[in-house]
Q: What sequence folds into this?
């Protein structure tokens, strides 16, 4: 599981109850330490006075701690009224630009009396958010709550996911193996825009050079045999000839070595027709198995698709493999149901319960019917579908939610029928924002991420 170091600023203003502030700090820390994937970084009693941030001396000590630990994001909390000049002006404003910030205020004590209010945190939060806005610092806000309230954990969980995704997405190295298909203008990308916006680097790899890597691996290589055995234990490959299985394993090994050698986080691959003609295989199953192990592989040299897969994988904390898949057709009779389908590249772990992926021949004319695709049905349950697109240097991420359902007809390849709340709204948003259908499908496990309403988010 992927993790992120998150800084916590427990802000307190002198004049309000120090005892209450210390108690709220402890309650917040207790709840945050329950969040999987969160490495909490916060000042202790030796770093600042009582582990709180209440003046500029505390702020300097907390800032040094955050810089030393290289936090990926910060949670700014008002334990009482809070002290915006130290918390925001002394800490947040000095962090690297675009560091993710999540703000909240704790609810006050129950024994409210005019002469003895312990907190006034609800009032103080407006001073804190004003200080953030005045400095142009973007932030998210949790509705005022106690740390034990479900909303607190849900927002912190989502923030941790976002920090992991942002930290891994910025500066990622995306491999480009070969050129895009001539007729697929839709998978065009702008390398300069990726560099400027996300500091991502496209690593070009000549397709013939990569094929030479595959062919240089000996058929009897120990690692090749290991991959063959592992594949047969995971996938029904009873009909696959020995030579085809061996070449698929050599291809997978060469691609894995390329990931390691070039320090890639994802790849976009030319998967037809050159590979079928030269190596005599289709590579869908190899891409599926690597994606399942945390190495996202996009088909058809879809670089933005590979970036989308990486974002989805990171947002799952590395626990759920993404699946790049086409949104192909509407169901002939069921409303708000469409087919998400691809040739055969679904990660095996996403196969429906009781389903064993089958390694088969590619059925599309012109491919020569080589072995290498996976026949499988996606498992039922909630999914998030997303796609990164770019026009005129402006990136948009389309994000929507639905549910995989088991319904006829069967369609071959890898895929499943997905029900959403309003397919007409989907179509409107996709057309309006130029979203193409080769997109990343990701199964989500957290209940608070479930839902169906589509939305688009621009960055």
A:
């Amino acid at each position: 599981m992927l993790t992120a170091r998150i800084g916590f600023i427990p802000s307190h203003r002198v004049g309000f109850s120090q005892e209450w502030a210390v108690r709220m700090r402890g309650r917040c820390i207790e709840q945050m330490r329950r969040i999987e994937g969160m490495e909490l970084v916060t000042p202790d009693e030796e770093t600042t006075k009582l582990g709180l941030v209440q003046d500029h001396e505390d702020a300097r000590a907390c800032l040094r701690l955050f810089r030393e630990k290289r936090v990926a994001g910060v949670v700014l909390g008002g334990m009482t009224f809070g002290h915006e000049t130290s918390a925001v002006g002394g800490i947040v404003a000095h962090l690297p630009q675009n560091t993710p910030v999540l703000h909240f205020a704790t609810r006050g004590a129950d024994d409210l009396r005019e002469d003895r209010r312990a907190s006034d945190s609800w009032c103080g939060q407006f001073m804190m958010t004003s200080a953030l806005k005045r400095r142009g610092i973007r932030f998210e806000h949790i509705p005022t709550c106690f740390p034990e309230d479900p909303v607190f954990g849900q927002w912190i969980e989502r923030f941790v996911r976002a920090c992991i995704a942002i930290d891994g997405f910025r500066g990622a190295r995306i491999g480009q193996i070969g050129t895009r298909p001539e007729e697929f203008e839709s998978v065009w990308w702008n390398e300069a825009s990726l560099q400027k916006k996300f500091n991502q680097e496209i690593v070009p790899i000549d397709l013939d050079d990569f094929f030479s890597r595959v062919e240089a691996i000996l058929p009897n290589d120990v690692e090749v045999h290991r991959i063959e055995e592992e594949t047969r234990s995971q996938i029904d490959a009873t009909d696959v000839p020995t030579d085809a299985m061996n070449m698929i394993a050599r291809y997978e090994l060469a691609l894995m070595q390329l990931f390691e050698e070039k320090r890639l986080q994802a790849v976009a691959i030319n998967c037809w027709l050159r590979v079928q003609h030269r190596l005599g295989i289709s590579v869908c199953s190899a891409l599926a198995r690597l994606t399942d192990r945390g190495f996202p592989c996009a088909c058809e040299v879809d670089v933005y698709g590979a970036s989308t897969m990486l974002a989805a994988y990171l947002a799952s904390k590395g626990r759920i493999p993404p699946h790049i898949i086409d949104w192909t057709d509407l169901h002939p009779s069921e409303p708000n149901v469409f087919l998400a389908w691809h040739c055969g590249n679904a990660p095996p772990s996403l196969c429906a319960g009781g389903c064993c992926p089958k390694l088969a021949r590619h059925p599309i004319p012109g491919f020569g019917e080589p072995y290498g695709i996976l026949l499988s049905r996606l498992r039922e349950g909630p999914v998030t579908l997303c796609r990164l697109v770019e026009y005129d240097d402006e990136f948009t991420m389309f994000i929507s939610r639905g549910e995989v359902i088991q319904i006829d007809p069967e369609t071959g390849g890898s895929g499943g029928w997905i029900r959403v709340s309003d397919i007409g709204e989907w179509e409107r948003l996709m057309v309006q924002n130029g979203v193409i259908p080769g997109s990343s499908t990701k199964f989500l496990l957290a209940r608070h991420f479930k839902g169906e309403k589509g939305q688009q988010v621009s960055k």
Observations:
- The radius of gyration is 25 Å.
